[in-house]
Amino acid sequence: MATKKMNKKTESVAVPSVTCAEMQQGIIDRLHKGLATDKNKANNKAWWNATCLAVNELVFEKLTKTHHNHAGKDTRAVNYLSLEFLMGRLLSNNLQNLQVFKVTEEALKGLGKDLYELCDEEPDMALGNGGLGRLAACFIDSLATLGYPAIGYGIHYEHGLFKQEFQDGRQIERPDTWREYGNPWEICRPESIQLIPLYGYVETLYDPTEGAKKIWHAGQKLKGVPWDIPIVGYGAKTVNILRLWESRASEAFDWDVFNAGGYVDSQAEKSRAETVSKVLYPNDSTDAGKELRLIQQYFFCACSVKDILRRFKRANSDWNELPKKVAIQLNDTHPTMAIPELMRILIDLEGLDWDFAWDICQKTFAYTNHTLLPEALEKWSVGLFEKVLPRHLEIIYEINAQFLKNVVEKKWPGDDQKKAKLSIIEESDNRMVRMANLCVITAYKVNGVAAVHSELVKTDLFPEFHELFPTKLVNVTNGVTPRRWLKTCNPGLATLLDETIGDDWVLNLDKLKGILPKATDSKFQQRFMDIKKQNKVEMAKIIKETTGVEVSVDAIFDVQIKRLHEYKRQQLNLIHILTLYKRLLENPDYDMVPRVFLFGAKAAPGYHMAKEIIFALNKIADKVNNDTRIKDKLKVVFLPNYRVSLAEKMFPAADISEQISTAGLEASGTGNMKFSLNGALTVGTMDGANIEMAEEIGEQHMFIFGLSVDEVKDLKTKGYKPYDYYYNNPELKSVLDWLDSDFFTPGHPGLLSDIKRSLLEWGDEYLCLADYASYLEAHQKIDALYRDQAAWAEKAILNAGAMGKFNSDRSIEDYASKIWKLKKFPIA
Ligand code: Z15
Fold first, then answer.
1. Residues of the chain with pLDDT > 90: what percent?
2. How far is the CA of 683 from the centre of ligand 1 (A)?
3. For 260-379, where are the alpha helices, taking DSSP H only?
4. Sign of the CA dihedral 664, 667, 668, 670?
5. What is its EC number (predicted)?
6. Could you report the predicted ipTM of this complex, rounded to two decimals?
7. Environment class of residue 788 by beta-carbon count within 10 Å: exposed (0-12), middle (13-18) or buried (19+)?
8. CA–CA separation, 735 vs 790, rounded Å?
9. Which residue is closest in CA terms to ligand 1's atom 8?
10. Which residues, other chains included, contact 55 with Cβ-Cβ below 8 Å and sequence gap of 6+?
11. Neighbours of 158 (CB within 10 A)
12. Which of 28, 716, 811, 825 is the most buried (most CB within 10 A)?
């Protein structure tokens, strides 16, 4: 990557804490003393490593200081429990947040090294799937930046999200090996290891004075080893930690087997134990239901809850204090097991009575819901539960019995239907534990992630719970961190902002409003568009390097990057592309602004239709990109292995942001915000956070199309008939029929037919055909607007300037005030 132009201005807010010479010395020192090499021998990986180690020297000091302040004052903290943290790369981000990026760039330049190139050496920390995992990463950045005492808890997966390759257009998954050669950012904390029981049976003892006492005799014990990653807030005052648990075999168990002469068995046992944190489950918004996943979830929750209680007990002896000192946020239902685990510890190990323990739990947990999709709502079979976590199942039964008797029966006496619906246990042939019900019953607050989503949580997902607990369900609209998603990834635009409105927009994104009056200023428009052009040039290079395809930067870069899922409707984008292609073939003079359609998306390995859509897009790309008849008016590029570090290059280069989910199904979306922040215009449905973006930007400055949430509901109740759209729209019909031919897969007709089938025979669950005409119209308007570059620039500026609300700092302030009742703890 090319060296970015140097900015005259110094770093914002504070002067750099190190000089150029000190930074050079630090890096050289780490090369010598940390890595036993020198500047003549070292390759770029070693230079990157040495730079990280030099950065750590600045971070560790602040980490210790923050820790002493928080522990010394026994402050209330939030514990953010998430099975996913999609961190991406840390070097550039840490340098920015420490405000030493420029000085480090200069230092390395003096040593003959390019900082951007070194940053590109870092493997992504891809411990998450998509939006939910990336949201957790943005949130811990904001928590540290705002000076809130917080700790993120997660799993130290050996393999993060799989690496995606294409073979003949089909997705192939390869293991991700982010830690193969070590990770300079993490610190192992063996002093905080936890032992985690699993399997076995429950013994009931009757004590004449205290009644029944439960003892869980575990069949196996896992060791949880914590790895800490420092999380540097912008301005570097607070440095919090992300604590990730790794599973190991516990020595105790090993030795028994070993002594019995079972060396080989003990090794098998060891590898079974290490399997628990081995790999991230690659399903985004679908439930896997596998035994290992349940163990993974429980292992993680048990380690985290024990760690939270260990810290609590260091400064407290009264359990009444627990909810005052500890807030636990559950990121979706994945960490639900923390609830029965806390109950178990309080009752079985600490000797509290049920009511007291339950009261504490209800004041400690809050839960975030991220989806309305039924296939994403986690359920575990009772049989599996009984085998793996027998004591927890008993506790869940008791929570459920009391809830049905004391709450549901009181409100709706004798109503068995209500009880069946609200019960934590789904009574079917295979009885299931409904994790979301357990969360809603326990949590003191439940939030959705965008206004429309939170309303639907109340009216459609949990209406009875809403009647029972009218103040429990609330909204906190998602946000993204402007440090990573603007300052770091788009230095050109960041510099323009610094010069136009001052450099404190990084900490107060509402300041972006300051560029709105400049939207019609032609000089400002020019600079804004020049920056976009430059970012497109960089992107074009990456496209050429990774796919061999040449694209023109004068074309509209139309980008859809997100997980591949039918509800996100990449297939609607696909049929639009086919429509344009057909028009061009039928009329080579067809008048359109050249377009480059860019995709990035991973499909869950077991998700057939998602993989078919990837395959089809790749086959269409092959054909379109090599068709000389259409005179380069159309290009289609599916970039392999979409990930955070690639996203950082794509958002700044986009002209059009595709946010085209079926209304009511995208809980929020966060990519939508990143695009707009970087000056792309949105083509989108009235769904998720798009609705609030339209409120801020003005609908007239976006390309809104398609059915609304209410219209979707109406159409579904009336009975949706995709064939009606097919037969009534000849262009749509011809495009879909094209998929049955061998045009895109020469010699193999029918290879793309499943896409057509899903849209017709299988019922088009996501209403692509219903929104097709309106989507086409929106794209016509895009074309027309782009021909007027000044008008386009004006809208792009109005978009970026309106993004203040979608800052994760604002989201965190909402959580802190509405849910956590958390106070800042400034570190001097
Ligand atoms: C995930 O990434 C999201 C929801 C889920 O239920 C799971 Cl399992 C994973 C996404 C939503 O689809 C997206 O709309 C939202 O912006 C994101 O979570 C963060 O809230």
1. 92
2. 20
3. 263-275, 291-315, 322-325, 338-344, 354-364
4. negative
5. 2.4.1.1
6. 0.99
7. exposed
8. 34
9. 285
10. 91, 94, 95, 98, 100, 104
11. 19
12. 811
Q: What is the pLDDT of residues 408-426, one digit of tens each?
A: 999 999 999 999 999 999 9
CB of residue 669 inside a 6 A radius of ligand 1 = yes
- Residue 370 CA to ligand 1 center (angstroms) comes to 5
Q: How many CB atoms lie within 10 A of CB 564?
A: 26
Cα atoms in the Cβ-side hemisphere of radius 13 Å centred on 356:
13
Active site residue 174: no
Cβ–Cβ < 8 Å for 656, 782 = yes
Q: What is the pLDDT of residue 286?
A: 79
What would the pLDDT profile of 524-540 be if each residue is shown by its tens digit? 999 999 999 999 999 99
Cβ–ligand 1 distance for 164 under 6 Å, the answer no
Decide if pLDDT at 458 tops 60: yes
Nearest in space to 807 (alpha carbons), one of 703, 677, 715: 677
Q: How far apart are CA 335 and CA 140, in angstroms?
A: 17
666 pocket-lining for ligand 1 (C-beta < 6 Å): yes
SS3 153: strand
Query: What's the CA gap between 407 and 420, in Å, rounded?
Result: 13
pTM greater than 0.95 (yes/no): yes
> Is there an atom of ligand 1 within 6 Å of 154 CB?
no
Among the residue ranges 205-214, 607-616, 686-695, the one predicted with the least confidence is 205-214
Could you tell me the domains of the chain? 1-73+90-123 (no CATH), 74-89+124-478+813-820 (3.40.50.2000), 484-806 (3.40.50.2000)
Mean per-residue pLDDT for 344-352? Answer: 97
